[in-house]
Amino acid sequence: MALYVQKYGGTSVGSVERIEAVAEKVKGFRERGDDIVVVVSAMSGETNRLIGLANEIQEHPDKREMDVLVSTGEQVTIALLAMALKKRGVDARSYTGGQVRILTDSAHTKARIQDIETTRMRADLEAGRVVIVAGFQGVDDHGNITTLGRGGSDTTGVALAAALKADECQIYTDVDGVYTTDPRVVAGAQRLDKITFEEMLEMASLGSKVLQIRSVEFAGKYHVPLRVLSSFQDGPGTLITIEDDETVEKPIISGIAFNRDEAKLTVMGVPDIPGVASRILGPISRENIEVDMIVQNVSADQTTDFTFTVHRNDFERAQNILEQVVTELGARGCSGNSKIAKVSIVGVGMRSHAGVASKMFDALAAENINIQMISTSEIKVSVVIAEKYMELAVRALHTAFNLDKGETVCE
Ligand code: ASP
Ligand code: MG
């Protein structure tokens, strides 16, 4: 007998019929003898609808009240699911985050979980009940309702699994697992049986949006085995777990991630003296603009070109700041390009294999794709290229690293 925390996302509970289907699924697990804690999201579209209502009143409504508002979405779902289970003769009880006592800090709309009270849930499980908890919400020390940020139900699921020492946290969604890349871009993309927390974090931060990033961090930190699977069809899904010893069997690359949300800025002809990087990026960070990749080239005439990327939404602001910086530094000028994309290969197998980056560059060169910037970490190589070549690059890399359907990805 196992204890599973199962999280069902918005589309999985998007209608009364879907909620009934989830109840049917949970009933099946109970009949097999497993203990189940269910975490649910709001019905699909509901959180956006609520935010829309608030925005009709004010562009930036009070954050405390925003949390009171958006937390209602999940409260609807827990009650409906409890009813659907009871109708099927399955004893169940629903709880809001505050009722469980998912204690968070007071950072409204992006609160962090600090502690979870498990007594009540354990008593229910002991009594043979399914426990249903509203995702995405908690309560602060003063009894205020808080929410955990968009997509926060994933984090509720993982946090409950950690607190209850569950055997697995299962995230039910509308895709049947984590893929080698987005199947909409590469038809031959395949579901991965397994991926490590580290790889998943890289994939998520690079734009693959299956799970809220914070939930993956949480699961990695507390070693909660995490499984992504479909609530619409049966299947093993993808297990996100710690790295095991079978590295020999592992593919070098687990996935290809991409991101169109970046823009590139260059300051040209900067005097090559100490402190220049800080004088360029200082004003950028003081404006709360996050910088991703940074490249600096030294030229023969003692000046350098300094290039970095920011989120596309921050592009114009960053450009305005740089115009000021150019004058101050006596640089030759600045330029910007928002029609870029970042493509990354991710895999823990890189640690034990040489030549991964050059294989990537070869594959891009064979397609005549120019690389504008490169950055690497222990398990990732990212390149910036022209946006119009992004899909071509992803497909070429997917093939070059033997990820296409029909090739063996695992074992
Ligand atoms: N309902 C919330 C949202 O749409 C939380 C979640 O679904 O995870 O962001
Ligand atoms: Mg989600």
TrEMBL record:
Annotated membrane-spanning segments are: none
What is its pathway?
A: Amino-acid biosynthesis; L-lysine biosynthesis via DAP pathway; (S)-tetrahydrodipicolinate from L-aspartate: step 1/4; Amino-acid biosynthesis; L-threonine biosynthesis; L-threonine from L-aspartate: step 1/5; Amino-acid biosynthesis; L-methionine biosynthesis via de novo pathway; L-homoserine from L-aspartate: step 1/3
Binding site residues for ATP: 7-10, 173-174, 179, 184, 209-210
The record's listing under Pfam families reads: AA_kinase (PF00696), ACT (PF01842), ACT_9 (PF22468)
The EC number(s) attached to this protein equal: 2.7.2.4
One cellular-component annotation, GO: cytosol
- Residue ranges annotated for the ACT domain, each copy included: 265-348
CDD domains assigned: AAK_AKii-LysC-BS, ACT_AK-LysC-DapG-like_2, ACT_AKii-LysC-BS-like_1
Sorted UniProt keywords: Amino-acid biosynthesis, ATP-binding, Kinase, Lysine biosynthesis, Nucleotide-binding, Transferase
Catalytic activity from the UniProt record: L-aspartate + ATP = 4-phospho-L-aspartate + ADP
Lineage, top-rank taxon, reads Bacteria
Tell me which residues bind substrate.
47, 74
Q: Name one GO molecular function term.
A: ATP binding
Which GO biological process entries does UniProt record here?
homoserine biosynthetic process; lysine biosynthetic process via diaminopimelate; threonine biosynthetic process
Q: Which family does it belong to?
A: Belongs to the aspartokinase family.
PANTHER family in the record: ASPARTATE KINASE (PTHR21499), ASPARTOKINASE (PTHR21499:SF3)
- Name this protein carries in UniProt: Aspartokinase
Please name the source species: Marinobacterium lacunae
